[in-house]
């Protein structure tokens, strides 16, 4: 297991680091639970922060965005992705702005300062529920892509199954997931600092860019060949059901930008004093949102132009057919493999904040987790085993998380930051800030209600099971 102990410098260096990061206005609530959940590692660069935060953002949600264009039409779809990106950045800036006066070094610490022990525990539970649900879904997606899946009398062939010419012992789902978990995921989740994942995060971002280049290239090829029809420019509304379907895009776009659970872990490791690290984190957030917003806009636009009204809820399903271009089969294989690898590289980042918050609930006054090898190993092993069991043994367990994904995720991304601002304990909010916070809460509540309602309707009238599922599966949202 990887061991990254604090860098040299002795007691004097540790004392200086602690002094530089002392709260400007010590919180009266900080004695509820110690904020010493992180060690004194402060050597991460801005580039490292951008890679890690961007990888946290661009998870499985990227594959669900083209379908939002099919529902909203191209102009409104593009505008929605931009607006949600701006609101998400504002919510993160709220977290950073209010963390400084209270000295909060975690999302739980920020909520604890504003709302006491109840606020802290609530946000920690939301992070645990949200992250473990998404990680289980990620493993299910990896299993579907590599080993294939069946449902409603139809079999979706996995990449490894294609290579072997059929089902064999080495491409069997449980064996594949176990091998990936032990050989790839376990070493990655064993790192004790987020900064240690910067190179895998850079690769993950590169794979997302590769996907954009591929889908843009195929689209341009077919465009010059005159095979791209005129895209829909207005929302697809023709009856009451189609009208309400417009609102199903809200939770998908909102959730695609969620990264708030990793904001503090990344910020805490940035180099420099508290003032310089605050400025660096703001730069990290701006660049990450710009990068991910650009990737999202290109993916959604080119994906919808390429497949039109045939765009699936998860565009990955569209790469299981002939694209009508040279080397179509090879392109589909590259897209599916790069998607699976991308998710594997996102996995340790979500596990990082999951592990920290679980440890904070179980051992609130223990030494920093990175300094306790036994506790670190036990919690890591427990989480990895639980996630593997949930995905490999009970592959339909994601149904349980549809409701938690529709509630916990929007709470973390919008409701909790907005409530912190409306509480405004350090008296920092302006009138405009409060208005934006109210808009965030309204959108988040609307998103949650729509997603939960969709979940209930899907349970009463279930769709086709077994299709490789992304963000829409986690939220239980369907655009069809």
UniProtKB/TrEMBL annotation:
Species assigned in the record: Ceratodon purpureus (Fire moss)
Domain Amino acid transporter transmembrane stretches: 42-452
Annotated segments matching region Disordered: 1-20
Keywords of this entry: Amino-acid transport, Membrane, Transmembrane, Transmembrane helix, Transport
Superkingdom of the source species: Eukaryota
GO molecular function, one term: L-amino acid transmembrane transporter activity
GO cellular component terms, A-Z: organelle membrane
Pfam families, alphabetized: Aa_trans
Protein family according to the UniProt entry: Belongs to the amino acid/polyamine transporter 2 family.
PANTHER family given in the database record: AMINO ACID TRANSPORTER, SODIUM-COUPLED NEUTRAL AMINO ACID TRANSPORTER 11-RELATED
The UniProt record lists the keyword Endoplasmic reticulum: no
The name this protein goes by in its record: Amino acid transporter transmembrane domain-containing protein
Coarse class of the protein's main subcellular location: membrane
Subcellular location: Membrane
InterPro entries listed in its UniProt record: AA_transpt_TM
